[in-house]
Design goal:
By secondary structure, the protein is mainly beta. The chain contains one helix and eight strands; from the N terminus they run αββββββββ. The chain is globular.
């Protein structure tokens, strides 16, 4: 666990000019909450893509990532801009339980990594 944390810290320190999404977060994340049917979040190497329904997506280049260890969990804050240049943040907590799960700050829904990257 300590070794993994140190690796994450080194990734962030070593990549000052370029935000790199941690490997454990890359992929498609979905929730069983029916309000988010046909919705997803996809983390790529440097991008955050929201599946917004009807087969549509909104993709953003991640400008910066902060990570903090809190009670055995990792709190990530992603900084990005929308196509109009407005600045946004996404803060979520990652727990390694059951293959990994994330919870967005101020939300109850638990998101889990999809079995495949198929979002259709």
């Amino acid at each position: 666990m300590l070794r993994a944390f140190l690796l994450v810290v080194l990734l962030f320190v070593g990549c000052k000019g370029e935000a790199v999404v941690p490997q454990r977060l890359t992929g498609v994340w979905v929730t069983s909450d029916p309000r988010y049917a046909n919705r997803y979040m996809r983390f790529g190497g440097h991008t955050l893509t929201y599946g917004i329904g009807d087969g549509k997506e909104m993709s953003h280049d991640i400008e910066k990532i902060d990570a903090e260890q809190v009670n055995g969990e990792t709190v990530y804050t992603f900084y990005y801009s929308d196509p109009e240049g407005e600045k946004w943040t996404l803060t979520l907590t990652y727990r390694p339980d059951g293959g990994g799960m994330i919870q967005i700050k101020n939300s109850k829904e638990i998101w889990e990594k999809a079995k495949t990257d198929d979002t259709g």
